User: Fold these one by one.
Assistant:
Number 1:
Amino acid sequence: MNNVNSKTIETERLVIRPSRWDDTDTFYEWELLPEVTEFFSIRDNQSKEDVVRKYVADSDDPKTRQFTICLKAGTPGIPEAMRYASMQITSRAMLSRAQAGIRKGTLILNLPGSPKAAKENLEAVLPAISHGLEMLSGRPADCAKLTD
């Protein structure tokens, strides 16, 4: 990936950087989502190699640079809780790349691709998320109150 003249931009909570080779797996998974593929020329019948080849070719074209947005400071408790809940179901949960963070008052969750696992992960954290959303909205919230 060439991105030679591309700069990294940092804000308080985000890093926007040129994409790297290690981003290609995530990009491929994202590209296969039906709500994403309808806006791209890549279709779900293409191999991973085809998708990565196009991704790399586009990254070398100055008109179509690829950038990746990374959270600088996430909310580590949410992915920890999701992984813990998933570990009660399968030991493969330890391989999860779950992330969570806040950007401009919006909570961002990275959920598993499997609908079953996404549902299980959300069920594990939803009770606490309502409190977090109250805090994000600026409403006073009783942090000592138990929700269980």
Number 2:
Amino acid sequence: MSSGSFAFRSYALQSVTQLFEQCRRKTKQSMTQSLDRLVERQIQKALAQGKLRGIEGEGKPLPDRSGEVYTDIATSVAFRIMAEAGALPKEFKIKKLLETAQQSYAEATDDDAKRVVMALIADLQQRYNIAMEARRRFMAP
């Protein structure tokens, strides 16, 4: 086999690979756009039929779920269902107490009050870390 033939085959393979990759990207983009259009049509249809009136949270901004960004979808959904049912995991309750304590520290004026709140914050932070570690170990494969 001559070196020219090898170079041509190598070039052809590279070209086909690039073409395949371009087609794959365009197909993925096209599918995403088609799905977006379908979802938008269904939303507009439901709005026109009045099916979205009177639902919980209507006219309010969506809840902030930025804390769920680093968890997998199944865990996020499970936590959301538990929260809606009022059964939050222990670390969520501790986190709320910790945020309240931090707010109290920011509002405290004298040194004694700050010292007491700081001790509470340290205790809550330790409890929060223990609860998070326990959940990580429980959820680990």
Number 3:
Amino acid sequence: MGGSRSSRETGDEAVLSNYLKVAGIGMLRVSVELWPGGQKQGSTLLAVADIERTRSGVRSDYSVELFEDVVHRRWSGAVENYPRWSASVWDLVARSITSALSGSEAMPKRPIQVVAPVHRFEGISFVRLQEIPQPARRFFEQSIQGKTRPVISGVSDPCACAWDWVDFLNG
């Protein structure tokens, strides 16, 4: 009987999987999902990394493509002359992601804490959304949908209450 397929594979995924096997191409897919309350139901796919072996052998080459839906951005990179079977698959995954994000296998510096100035006007503490760096701004805007937002005299861009910003950062 032919190869079995996972119950999670769709028809298209099964065709791709079979093609990759026949063509001798190795591919890994790493997905990052947000599971609200630790439950798969209602999960959201945040990012995907596709790692493809482009040259086989004791020392193989890999190309990597990253896509992050939150910021609608793609990155690409490569891991070359990698000693297959010498480490955990997580070592290859970490090096591939790092290569795509920084251009080398060395880890980039840790990102700095997101900071946005808190303003005060007539007793109201607020933040200006345009002063919040991405991708934090996008997540914050989603978190305050439906909440009361201050309208500040002399400020034309959207604002939010400072306590909502602090709650978001702490949450």
Number 4:
Amino acid sequence: MLFTWIKNGKPDVGMCLNAPLAGLVGITAGCASLDALGSAVVGLVTGILVVLIVEVVDTRLHIDDPVGAVGVHCANGIWGTIADGLFNTGSGLFYGGGFAHLGVQLLGVVSIALYTSVVMTIVFQVIKATVGLRASAEEEIMGLDITLTSGYSCQSGCSSPLSQLQFCLSSLCPHPSVSLSLPFLHHLLAPLSGACGL
């Protein structure tokens, strides 16, 4: 929270939720072998790293990662694995163990990255060839929660998809100056109304 407050001028609630998760991911590899100082360093770095990686993934790479999973799990999993090679009290670089343990940790990171890249490339190619990787434009507008699960991600008791959309958008933008009336939404979504059953 402090890092986002200093960096952006205000705290970020989403990052306040992601930072503890990132800390848990970061400490997992070395939880049995780090002392209090090493654990504190791992925690400080994870709190900053998650913010920076989420920003890069979202704003620079334009990858859709709405919950910050890449920053929490990938980046901090890598950091935590490397940190064990640095701060391990028995064999870490900063505790007189030399480069051997750090080298093993780096080899582990590279091996997992290569394995995951190969396996997931195969898996995604199979998915692409069979059921496809993308939802249709109509499904994206209606929402995948409706088209895949027949449920709504935000429950309002609304009877139609259009009134459900109005409720969900209103809850995201509750300011009274923003009008999300049904006629406005109907006009906005008119080109898709036949295809989506709105």
